[in-house]
Amino acid sequence: MAAQQSQGIQTLLEAEKEAAKVVQQARQYRVQRLKDARSEATKEIEAYKKTKEAEFKNFEASHAGVTQDAQAAVDKDTAGRLQTITDSYQKHKDVVVKKLLDRVVLVKPELHRNLKKVGQ
Predict the structure, then answer these.
(1) Where would one find the signal peptide in this protein (predicted)?
(2) pLDDT tens across 16-53, in order?
């Protein structure tokens, strides 16, 4: 009977070792599948990124002329407005300087409107 129990225990130990091997193989398989999935996802992401970059470059190339034309129009408008402002400055600077000097130099002493005369 002892031999039969010993043989049963031995069989259980061997079955446990075999089960541990199966579990270990399943873990390794799962880890490998995860690595494969990550590498596949990385490849798909890179391919998608290349496609979108190519689309963007095509879009940029097709609209580059429009941007340059708009920039040229803005530059021309800015130059025109700047010239107008410069002309106005040159035309009116003497008058403005004279008005400022008259205000500073020609002072009329007056009592402040909030000052009340003493005794009244």
Answers:
(1) none
(2) 999 999 999 999 999 999 999 999 999 999 999 999 99
Q: Which residue has the higher pLDDT, 44 or 111?
A: 44
- Is the pTM higher than 0.70? The answer reads no
Both tokens of 19, joined, read: 């089960």
> What tokens were used for 69?
């034309």
Q: Take residue 59 and report the two structure tokens written for it.
A: 């879009």
Burial 16-54 (b: 16+ CB within 10 A, else e): eeeeeeeeeeeeeeeeeeeeeeeeeeeeeeeeeeeeeee
Q: Kindly state the DSSP code that residue 48 receives in the 8-state scheme.
A: H
- Residue 92 in tokens: 């009116």
Return d(Cα 16, Cα 28) in angstroms, integer. 18
